[in-house]
Amino acid sequence: MRYMLMVKATGYSEARVNHSREYNEAMIAYKKTLAKAGALLATEELQPSSAGIRISYPAYGENPEILAGPFPVDQKLVAEYTLIDAKTEEDALNWALQMPVPAGRGEFEIELRRLEENLDNLTRS
Amino acid sequence: MVRDVGIAEDLAQDALVIALDRWPETGIPDNPGAWLMTTAKRRAIDLMRRNKLRDQKYVEVAHSTYLYTEEEIDQSLDGEIGDDLLRLIFMTCHPVLSQEARVALTLRLLCGLTTDEIARSFLAAEATIAQRIVRAKKTLSANKVPFEVPEGEELQDRLSTVLEVIYLMFNEGYSATSGNDWIRPLLCQEALRLGRVLAEIASQEPEVHGLVALMEIQSSRFKTRVNNKGEPILLMDQNRSQWDRLLIRRGLAALERSRKLGRSLGPYSLQAAISSCHAQAPTAEETDWIRIAALYEALSRVTPSPIVELNRAVAISMAFGPAFGLQLIDELNAEPSLDGYYLLPSVRGDLLVKLGRYDEARTEFERAAAMTRNERERTLLLNRAAESGVEKEGN
After folding, report:
1. Pick among B265, B269, B314 to test the A interface (most A CBs inside 10 A)
2. How many CA atoms lie within 13 A of B345 on its CB side?
């Protein structure tokens, strides 16, 4: 089963304050461990929301409302994700709990989400 | 209405000279921009009437203006002359010129800035700028560049340089680089007016609205930027109740227009967004520095430069603490293009004060004071150096 570990944006990530060397090394080690266990499917960092554009339809049939970022940090924006393969939700949670946490930067949040596995009909064509 | 760059230059300069000549006696008129336009236009008509008699090549131009009465001139103030200024800007921003030459030439011709002033806005040597301007004029004449506002795709291509020029013009007026003139309202008003005109011509260009937003919001603080002795007041210390609400509203509306055009924010829109964070904070303490830090990050990605990084470091220190800011500043200290740039030691001094390292702070403020050519800024910095010494003794 595939799970996505979504790291939420913080003021620090939105301002791209460089991580400490310790944190960077710990993150590389963590991802190597994931890869060695055959659990790592993909991992990417997103640019801050200032590089984003929102497209919203107030109602069907209406013109889209377009708005360029940045968006408020308290809206739980996604800063990076790691896609893993895990046998159970418990395994996935264990992986999530092993992810390094940056020191001295306040609140840090990871959201664990399971991917739908029965959408072959949509992706095959 | 004037097709030759040399003549257009003379007219613009003439009007400025008259203004500088007369205003000390009569006082600055309520609307100096409009006054300047009237003067320039009257002079243009005088000149063309003379040329009509004297020189066949101006017959056609002079003919079209021959019918003007004094009254008509006054009525068409904001129309024709404004268009002429715009045409002149597009001509001096023509693609036959290098980017640097376009900016330098326009500042020289439209704003009457000296080569020294232009040199300092660019952190370049005066001789380099002077040479650039001479060459640019020769290139324009040699290529017979037309006096017109471009249309269609060409308009978009040439817009970014025009925006750069307008913004430099505004900046030059907003904070003089040397001498006692802290504020030159005339340049600011001219830049803002040109920006508004351009926003109507190129309404689908987010950055035009971004630039207008930036200038509107910055103009809203015009009255609060100096005290009654004429000394500068920093943004955080200004009396916010005196900020011009109308200009702020106009600025926020222009920024909103920019955000809805489907492109992530460009440099002017980002700076306007930063400015809007300050404009919307009821008190200095309530400033949303986390958002400002994010906006500076975007700015450093869109237009990477040591100076943007310097500002980003300040925002980061306000949002997350001086230690984070100092870390970024010290990386900038190795940057050769910032040698002699007084804001680097000045900002470093600020952060050191916040970290309680007063001795180092005083040294930085003194270094900064020795670098700036603006007398008021130097006084400000020397005061800060002295305060740092007092703080230390107090401990």
Report:
1. B265
2. 22
CATH 3.10.20.310 fits A2-117, yes or no: no
In this structure, the number of other CB atoms found within 10 A of the CB of residue A60 comes to 5
Look up residue A97 and give its two tokens.
Answer: 């709990």
CA gap B137, B32 in Å, rounded: 28
The ranges assigned to domains in chain A are 2-117
Let me know: does B174 contact B188? Beta carbons within 8 Å. Answer: yes
Question: Cβ contact (<8 Å) for A51 and B258?
Answer: no
Closest chain A C-alpha to B13 CA, distance in angstroms? 41
Concatenated DSSP letters of B42-105? HHHHHHHHHHHHH-GGGHHHHHHHHT--HHHHHHTIIIIIHHHHHHHHHHHT-TTS-HHHHHHH
- pTM of this prediction? 0.72
Alpha carbon of A48: minimum distance to chain B alpha carbons (Å): 8
- How far B113 CA lies from chain A's nearest CA (Å)? 36
Q: Could you report the predicted ipTM of this complex, rounded to two decimals? A: 0.88
Q: How many CB atoms lie within 10 A of CB B278?
A: 21
What CA–CA distance (Å, rounded) separates B161 from B157?
Answer: 8
Two structure tokens written together for B280: 């919307």
Using an 8 Å Cβ cutoff, are B323 and B355 in contact?
Answer: yes
For B97-145, the pLDDT digits (tens) are 887 788 788 778 776 678 887 776 666 788 998 999 999 989 988 888 8
- Residues of B with CB below 8 A from A15's CB? 290, 293-294, 296-297, 312, 315-316, 319-320
Chain A positions in Cβ-Cβ contact with residue B301 (cut-off 8 Å):
47, 50-51
pLDDT in tens, B289-302: 999 999 999 999 99
Task: Tell me which chain A residues have a C-beta less than 8 angstroms from the C-beta of B316.
Answer: 15, 17
